[in-house]
């Protein structure tokens, strides 16, 4: 049900055209990661789904997600990604958007 709600909300965001495609996509990504539908691979799945949303529905360019560095292994890039997700938990999506476009 959570994923269905996310898709319904995303459709509504797109119809409103209040936010940019990047903003909509970052909000979508954050919510999908929070739903955590799988025991493993949630970040990879959420990044893929977000890029598909950007390219196929919002006519945007896919995100670079930290310049393509490995996010599944511990390190500086993953730490920045996790910190940006945590900041989005507070309602501040700017760091996540900046990371996604870095």
Describe the protein:
The chain contains five helices and no strands. The longest helix has 15 residues. It has a single domain, classed as Fic-like fold (Orthogonal Bundle). 65% of the residues lie in helices and 0% in strands. The radius of gyration is 13 Å and the shape is globular. It has 102 residues and is mainly α.
Count of discrete structural domains: 1
- Rg over CA atoms: 13 Å
Mean pLDDT: 94
Q: Pick out the low-confidence regions.
A: none
Q: Tally the helices: what do you get?
A: 5
CATH topology: Fic-like fold
Q: What structural category characterises the helix and strand content?
A: mainly alpha
Strand and helix order? HHHHH
> How many beta strands in the DSSP annotation?
0
CATH architecture title = Orthogonal Bundle
The 3D shape can be described as globular
Strand content: under 5%
Indicate the percent of residues in helices: 55-70%
CATH homology superfamily: Fido-like domain
Major sheet size, sense and barrel closure: none
What's this model, at a glance?
With 102 residues, this protein is mainly α.
């Amino acid at each position: 049900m959570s994923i269905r709600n996310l898709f319904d909300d995303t459709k509504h965001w797109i119809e409103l055209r209040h936010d940019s495609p990047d903003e909509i996509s970052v909000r979508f990504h954050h919510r999908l990661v929070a739903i955590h539908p799988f025991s493993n691979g949630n970040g990879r799945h959420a990044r893929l789904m977000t890029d598909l949303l950007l390219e196929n529905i919002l006519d945007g360019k896919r995100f670079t997600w930290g310049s393509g560095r490995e996010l599944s292994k511990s390190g500086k890039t993953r730490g920045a990604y996790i910190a940006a997700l945590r900041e989005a938990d507070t309602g501040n999506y700017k760091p996540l958007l900046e990371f996604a476009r870095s």
